[in-house]
Amino acid sequence: MFDLIIRNANLPDGREGFDIGIAGGKIAAIEQSIAATAGETVDATGRLVSPPFCDPHFHMDATLSLGMPRMNVSGTLLEGIALWGELRPLLTKEALIARALRYCDLAVTQGLLYIRSHVDTSDPRLVTAEALLEVKEKVAPYIELQLVAFPQDGYYRAPDGVASLERALDMGVGIVGGIPHFERTMEDGARSVEALCRIAADRGLPVDMHCDETDDPMSRHIETLAAQTVRFGLKGRVAGSHLTSMHSMDNYYVSKLIPLMAEAEINVIPNPLINIMLQGRHDTYPKRRGMTRVRELMAAGLNVSFGHDCVMDPWYSMGSGDMLEVAHMAIHVAQMAGIEDKRKIFDAITVNSARTMGLEGYGLGIGCKADLVVLQAADVTEALRLKPNRLFVIKAGKVIARTAPRVGELFLAGRPASVEMARDYVPQVQQR
Ligand SMILES: [Zn+2]
Q1: 40 - beta bridge partners?
Q2: Closest by alpha carbon to 98, among 132, 69, 74?
Q3: Catalytic entry in 134, 166, 187, 213
Q4: Distance from the CA of 368 to the center of ligand 1, in angstroms?
């Protein structure tokens, strides 16, 4: 009666030794011991089974372009934008599609099955939008890809910024982006937020803006974004990506700002890997870390989810499509290493990002989509620590990727023959 049963699974909430029965691409049973048989069985052997990872902030048009046409010498955000500007005229639809598909292959092996990607609309050729709309169709059987019309060079600042963004939306790009801190003036930035929220309201679309990705504490476009969200009736449908200026803001001002963001139900998307790499570049020492106020925003009830942002592109030479790597960095930069903290961080790359992306049927409940990942870790804490192999990746009840467990063999007299980090180094204090 089941198509697939996953046996002996530990769940993200700490429950252990459960069987998950899957029928018709959906989760049909979660029980201690399912008596029925199934067409296929996956033995989780007491490992963590989680809903798949969701990346709410990525740039799939730029990914895997590292070194084209040259490297980012200063390592700054602004040189990255300039470098992307050099590469952009050279982009072809075929090459964009090929790189995006290669990234999606990697994402699947990492258990990353939901991605929201910004699509640069600055070049009026819109070859980026054309390519990624095609990729969205191609990967739909295994990855849900959402696309944001993103005016990288400025909605007003780029010569064709306004018209190009509108055309990308007409083509089917489904989310309205923005970059208010990159407009020529603070006033232009605020006007762009208003105009873009109006477009979203008129078209019934969500908003996801790069907002205040700067160390300038006076970059306060998030305040405008929260206000326009309420004004245009967009509560819960708007995301503020990066928000790094909040790291440098005056505490008194933030005590006013966070409640305004909560009122507007802004989804907050820090990008820990990229923020720690690109922010604070004009500082000597002490050097700011740039990531927004994750703990405080979570405490105020805001939905915080982490994005990967970049993998091997003009802004970031590293990255591996692994949302656990993103979470690992978040734990360090936000200094959230307590047991409850870690649960919240894990939520930020799973259920919270699903909420940001407005996903339906996501999760580990009866009737949810049977999209699941079996990790080589016993629990959430261990998964965050080890960034372990994804033993099985399951989409709609079918195994679509498999990776062998990582075990190191030892050839030392009087020592064990092998070491598995996940099983052989369980802490003395129960973490679950
Ligand atoms: Zn970004």
Answers
A1: 4
A2: 132
A3: 213
A4: 30
- The secondary structure of residue 309, as a DSSP letter, is B
Dist. CA 58 → ligand 1 center (Å): 6
Beta 38-50 vs 372-375: how paired, if at all?
antiparallel
- The residue among 302, 282, 283 whose CA lies nearest residue 352 is 302
Strands 18-23 and 26-31: antiparallel
State the distance from the centre of ligand 1 to the C-alpha of 1, rounded, in angstroms: 45
Residues in Cβ contact with 123 at an 8 Å cutoff, skipping those fewer than 6 apart? 88, 89, 91, 164
Do 331 and 341 form a contact (C-beta atoms < 8 A)?
yes
Tokens standing for residue 344: 């919240």
H-run or E-run covering 3 = strand 2-10
Q: In sequence order, what DSSP letters do the residues of 372-396 get, joined into one string?
A: EEEESSSSHHHHHHH---EEEEEET
Residues 290/276, Cβ–Cβ less than 8 Å: yes
Q: How far is the CA of 59 from the centre of ligand 1 (A)?
A: 6
Instruction: With H, G, I as helix, E, B as strand and everything else as coil, classify residue 312.
Output: coil
User: What would the two tokens of residue 36 be?
Assistant: 């029925």
Q: How far apart are the C-alpha atoms of 367 and 365, rounded to whole Å? A: 6
Taking the centre of ligand 1 as the mean of its atom positions, its distance from the CA of residue 102, in whole angstroms, is 20
CB 357 within 8 A of CB 143: no
What single DSSP character describes residue 226? H
Q: How far is the CA of 242 from the centre of ligand 1 (A)?
A: 8
The answer to whether 31 is a known catalytic residue is no
| Contact by Cβ (8 Å): 391, 376 | yes
* Residue 241 alpha carbon to ligand 1 centre in Å: 7
Between β-strands 18-23 and 2-10, what pairing exists: parallel, antiparallel or unpaired?
Answer: antiparallel
* Contact predicate 214/248, CB 8 Å: no
Tell me the pLDDT of the chain (432 aa) as tens digits.
899 999 999 999 999 999 999 999 999 999 999 999 899 999 999 999 999 999 999 999 999 999 998 999 988 888 999 999 999 999 999 999 999 999 999 999 999 999 999 999 999 999 999 999 999 999 999 999 999 999 999 999 999 999 999 999 999 999 999 999 999 999 999 999 999 999 999 999 999 999 999 999 999 999 999 999 999 999 999 999 999 999 999 999 999 999 999 999 999 999 999 999 999 999 999 999 999 999 999 999 999 999 999 999 999 999 999 999 999 999 999 999 999 999 999 999 999 999 999 999 999 999 999 999 999 999 999 999 999 999 999 999 999 999 999 999 999 999 999 999 888 888 876 655
